[in-house]
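Quick entry, no commentary yet.
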Amino acid sequence: MLEQRIQQHFIDSADLKYQAAQALSKPIASAVQAILACVTSGGKVLACGNGGSAADAQHFSAEFVGRFERERPELGAIALTTDSSILTAIANDYDYNAVFAKQVRALGQAGDVLLALSTSGNSANVLAAIAAAHEREMTVVALTGRGGGKIGQALRETDVHICVPHERTARIQEVHILALHCICDGVDTQLLGEQETPT
């Protein structure tokens, strides 16, 4: 019984990835181009999200600053989810919904990219960060699910929306991490040229 349930998780995850591959390849490619334009102009990516999405923001930033699968010069990325003093000060002195927006206003510049993650598409603090990024003339790359929610409505034509066509948080997060890996690989390929995919 338990093993069958586990196998079903694998099957459901794989099915969603197959279904989403065609629908998401274009927005992921657009995200690669937006982030590539940013970092080749000396800009940086600011990444944010809550819970598992916070972990994904940190995961992305680590692979961007360190490396993904190939050696290359460091690329600028900051996870806005990691400084506990900043997060707790803003949450305490202002409001938890401001924890990312105030960092975006402090660190973001025109030409930078905000990588905004929210499986529901309705995270208030991520929405506030998007508004702050627009004030700073930054491009937003949003990863959502469940139809995109309020974030989908807040995006501009110049932004990129990668919306996973599913309702279940775990499945959405599994596709988000794949999309982030695709972005890292796409940026590396554009910068360094084609290379055989590691096995």
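second:
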Amino acid sequence: MNIENNELDVNFVRSQFPAFKDELCKDWVFLENAGGSYVPDTVVDRLTKFMISTKVQPYAEYPMSKIAGNEMDIATEYFSKMINAQKNEILIGGSTSINLYVLSNALRSFLKPGDEVIVTNQDHEANISPWRRLEESGIKIIEWKINKENAELEIDSLLNLLNKKTKIVAVTHCSNIVGSVNNIKKITKLAHANNTLVMADGVSYAPHGFPDVKDLDVDFYTFSLYKTYGPHLALLYGKEEILKTLPNQNHSFLNGNYPYTLNPGGPNHEELSSLIGIYDYVNKIYNHHFSDKDNKIQKKIAKINNLIAKHEEKLANPILKYISLNKNLKLIGKDKIVSKNRAPTISFTHKNKTSEEVSKILVANKIATRNDNFYAWRCLDYLGIDTDDGVVRLSLVHYNDQNDVNMVLEALDRVN
């Protein structure tokens, strides 16, 4: 089937994910994608094959080892191309939290007491606490606060914080609670005009379409690969001219061998290799929908991103509308997706019930979701929400379908 840039064939998409055929999973509406997505057959097959045939130390001369090392290199190269980076500008680590902790330690040596680092109170803690630890070295941490009324980060507020002492701005591309997509390109332009580096957290953005890091012009960018249809790993991008100047955080003999200098212990071999399966999946989606066999992966991703955005908007807007119009529910963030101004990550609270009580009702109706602060506890605390009970979060991605939406709306009717 080829539908030439019309709309996403969600039935084809779902056929690529074994979870939807699995006895345990198949009757559930999976709406905790912001916590971790299902994986396609292509990833499972790559992981299985590696574990069977090439689970050996890579880069030796015997064939199993050669293949293992080669596949690890191919996976890194493919992912660099998918985000429009160079192979030596990305590293694959255990998690976004680990990657940013190591990066902040590396950047520490470029900062002096009195220098300032801006963090937000909208971010996941992964892009907050590593930078706040720099206070131990005399670095001043400045908080870019959200607007308490709408939970948004406002550019004017950033402009009031930037000054000649500002060395780093750490900001989320998309909030995992509010759902808003922040204008990283504009933020980066303003920061660079102030001679300030930008660390953008794309964990909640990338599942809805891989970014073009060169277009954004960010200095660093990160996202979790287990939320973009892969295994529990994370990617960190850094501009080459910066990476090669950072002090080694790895074994001493690796000095100058960036980006491995920022990856203590190296990547998980079998999971890194399985990332080829995400590249395979992207190509399967493209070939199913488009007849043009363009070999530029960035062009393919741009077309796929457009299909995904339209599909997710169609699914999420009825849920956003329902919650925003329900007098017992309080939606956090924008009440409508328009031109990808927010992700289909929908958080809300109930006027008379705890988030835990609401979550249990949804789970009882086969909606796989949960209540939590989702590591964005500073955001919830600032909004006056109990950080232990948290919010209820419904997070969709492109493999969700209209039946999922119908079941969610029916379940929400039972919450009242």
